[in-house]
Structure formats: structure tokens, C-alpha cells
Amino acid sequence: MRSDTSHSQRRKTSLSTERVVAAAIDILDSAGESAMTFRALANQLSTGSGAIYWHVADKDALLSLATEHVLSRAIARVVSAPCPADALRAIALGVFDAIEAHPWVGTQLAREPWQPAMVEIFEKSSAQFNALGVSSEAIFHCVSALAQYLLGTAAQTAAAARHKFCASDRSTVLTTIVGEWTKRDPAEYPFVHLLADQVRSHDERAAFLAGLNLIIAGSEALTATKRSHRTLPAEPR
């Protein structure tokens, strides 16, 4: 007769952390974070909860692993770009698209921006700012601005998911928001009224790219300033 210990050990070894993470991502994508329990995960993997705890300590650790897996995969798909600015756009848009496809990733980043997934974003982006010619002193400010921009996007996507705004609702939601905003006196809020049509009809991805280009343009301006300082002629004595 087989012992419970040997049976339990076989169940542990039949799993892998990768399988557990993949199953968690399936549940998160299909039913959301609230549905991702260890019981649901055990049912999907046809195992017991104890076998899952052999690979991950708790739900928070599993969410962190799932987020890291999705974002690492998104960044890994970025092909080498012809210039550092294009590489930065590819990295940022890869993260943007991953968050759009997996809104729970946005929730995780907004909740815990210090988690391991941000380390790779920080490293890869810093390398590209360095390749642009940004000074070592200014790289931190450039990559911090980019990281905060990505975290803001993550928080916004997470909020939309929390309120269950789907793509088909977007036009209605924006029209409602603009309707409320434009009730204000146009003499006091002229730009709210001026930009109302753009708020109502803007494309999220295009708007994200426009903001990203401002960050990149700022970093390129820093390198141009540094170069001009190097080439200034010495003042006559």
C-alpha cells in the first residue's frame, strides 16, 4: 500500500512553478483577481492546495510572479530597435499592451510598484537612456519619469477594470465625463471646453505614445545641452 507521504511527494513533483503561474494567469485573465484563489487554482491543476504551497508562499507571491512573467515576456518580445529612442518606445508600448491585455497587471503595478517586474523595466530603459547619451546623473530622472508614467497608466487601466469599463463602454463613459466637465462655466474653464472633443474621441494608445515622445524628447534635449556645453569655445582671458 502506498504511503500518504509518497503520494503527496508525487503530486508536488508533478507540478512546477511555471505550471502554477500559467494556470494563475488563465484564471486572472478569464475571471479576474477575486476569482484567483488557491482552491480554484487547485481545481484547474487537478491537485491539492498543499502542492501549490510547495511552489508559492501565498497569493501575493503568486500575483507578483504572474505579473513578472507577463511583463518579462512583453519586454522580451521587443526586437532590437535601430536607435535607443525606438527601443524605449518599444519597451513602453510592450508594457502598455501587456497591461491592456491583462488589466490585473495594472492593478498589481499600481498596488506594488517596487515588485520585481519593475526591476527589468528600470534596467532595460536605463540602458537605452544611456545609449541616447544621457549623463549618468540624469539617467535616474529620465527612467524615473518613464516609470512613473507607466505606473500612472497601470493605475488608470486598473481603475477602468475595477469599474468594469470595457472597450464598448468607452465612448459612452467619455461622453458622460465630458458632459459633466462642460457644465462648468467656459469663462472659468476655457481649456476644458476647448479640449472636450479630443477628450471624448482620443485614442488611448496614441495618447500614451504622444506622452512617451515628450519624455524621450526631454531626454534628447538633455543630451543636446550636454553636447553644446562640450563644444562651447573657451572664453578669452
Structure description:
With 237 residues, this protein is mostly helical. The chain has 13 helices and no strands. α6 packs parallel to α9. It is flat and about 65 Å long. It starts with a helix and ends in a 6-residue tail after the last helix. The N terminus is likely disordered.
Structural class given helices, strands, pairing? mainly alpha
Mean pLDDT: 85
Give unreliable regions as ranges.
1-13
Bulk shape? flat
Number of strands: 0
Number of helices: 13
Calculate Rg over CA atoms. Answer: 23 Å
N- and C-termini, Cα separation: 97 Å
Index terms:
76% helix, 237 residues, mainly alpha
Task: Kindly summarize this structure in a few lines.
With 237 residues, the chain is mainly α. It has helices at residues 4-14, 17-31, 38-45, 49-53, 59-76, 84-101, 103-111, 116-132, 136-162, 170-181, 190-194, 196-201, 204-231.
What are the SSEs and their pairings?
Blueprint: H1 4-14, H2 17-31, H3 38-45, H4 49-53, H5 59-76, H6 84-101, H7 103-111, H8 116-132, H9 136-162, H10 170-181, H11 190-194, H12 196-201, H13 204-231
